[in-house]
Amino acid sequence: MALERVLLPEWTPQWGVLLAWPHADTDWCDLLDDAEATYVALACAILARQHLRVICRDAEHSAHIRTLLTQAGAELARLELLERPYNDTWARDFGPIAVTENGALTLQDWRFNGWGGKFAADADDALNQQLPWDVPLRRFDLILEGGAIDTDGRGNLLTTSNCLLNPNRNPQLDRAAVEAQLKEAFGLRNIWWLEHGYLEGDDTDAHVDTLARFCDERTIAYVQCTDRDDVHYTELRAMEQELEQLAAREQLKLVPLPMTPPLFDDDGARMPATYANFLIINGAVLVPTYGCDTDAAALAQLDAAFPNHDVIGIHCLPLIVQHGSLHCVTMQLPTGSVPV
Prior knowledge:
This protein is an alpha/beta fold. It has a single domain, classed as CATH 3.75.10.10. The protein has ten helices and 17 strands. The chain has helices at residues 32-47, 59-71, 91-94, 114-117, 122-127, 161-164, 175-186, 233-250, 295-305, 317-321; strands at 5-7, 14-20, 51-56, 79-83, 97-101, 104-111, 137-143, 149-151, 156-160, 190-194, 212-216, 219-224, 253-258, 279-281, 284-289, 310-315, 331-334. It has a four-stranded mixed β-sheet with strand order 1-5-6-7, covered by helices on one side. A four-stranded mixed β-sheet has the order 4-3-2-17. A three-stranded mixed β-sheet has the order 8-9-10. Strand 3, helix 2 (59-71) and strand 4 (79-83) form a beta-alpha-beta unit. The chain is globular and about 50 Å long.
């Protein structure tokens, strides 16, 4: 009997979400209070609807997190705190990726090399193997981050060539070899490559979850740049044209999300603010906001795209100081994946 795999979309019913909490020995040390305020807001929104698995450094850190969430009025009965070693907090890129194999849930553990060797990642790469799961966890040798891919759950994968074909990931593999391995691992029919699109300040080499995302089987939300004077205009307009061609061919609906005005860190470097970095959970969509005039328009667009979900803004300006956002720090865990 042939093995039939299905890569699960984000809207699959969830047990909860995986987070790795920032602490003073991570890159968050200079803005730890602000970062923790974002994590608390995110954790409370998740715990109101489902479970939350938080990775922390030690017993003292665990108690600190529990105190923060208690003070915020979080639903602590759904909270799981686990003490494990980790390098950083970008759970999207080292967390497990969920598939079904002949209908049975399985988690996949892909190699993580710190976005092409840019940052230390040995503990993050080993983390999934140290966590308790209620389903098989299969290790794959290919380097792949969860933020680099998105799926409609019908055998179609959306990704970017700038990331997956970057020689800092799997230099021994060409496009055909990458496609073959992903199709086999995820049971894919099609890989939809975006050849354009990037954000200044992004360390990921153009993760698709910063640019274009499935809202449902037939809808893709994407970052639209309409300012011809913006440095992103040419690339994002080219990406938009690629998506328009894809939508016409596959009968998809496109939902444009506004580009934030330029946001800069204290050193004057532009930060990669994006509304495409939302997280779908049970009954809600958590959307990063940045204190910009464009926040309201982004929330309205996603509210229309998710008529059966509550759309909740989470202030994420502290996250983009470290070059990521809301989706980047989370990984959804489907129902049945975690022991209860």
